[in-house]
Amino acid sequence: MSDAEFVPPYMAFGTFRNFLAGLNPERIPARIDRSLMIGMAGGTQTYLLQTLRLFGLIDGEGRASRQLVALARDEASFKAEMAAIVGQFYAEQLALSSQQGTAAQLAESFSPSGYQGSTLRKAITFFLHACAAAEIELSPHFRSPQPGRATNGSPRRRTRPNAAPLF
Fold it and tell me: pTM, whole model, 2 decimals?
């Protein structure tokens, strides 16, 4: 997949990182597939496989790249490889950061993906966590958008369960 076709992942970065940390770099299987994702919800498995493909960490048949093996090796290798991935796939966002871009500019930079609402927020959050893991310093103005409001414009209300009668 070329960088021009890149659509940012919007899964939880912790899930991505924990999966890679759980792989033994000396014994990476011939194919990365769902059978390695025991205990993970089916949707999460789908997002994880898609993210691994997007970053070129596995090919269409699930074969691991050298970069995936390096990500699983140790913390120092993870940071270095994550920095390379962020540099390759998020060049526009890093350029904005170097210009002290704002949170709104960061959100706008994801507009080619077509994401809106919570999906946009999740994609930005993945990027921010990837940068933090790679120890990439970002604009102090970058932050993840806040969750939206209720559809009628009023703030969300927490509902309390009805209290049980005393007698």
Answer: 0.83
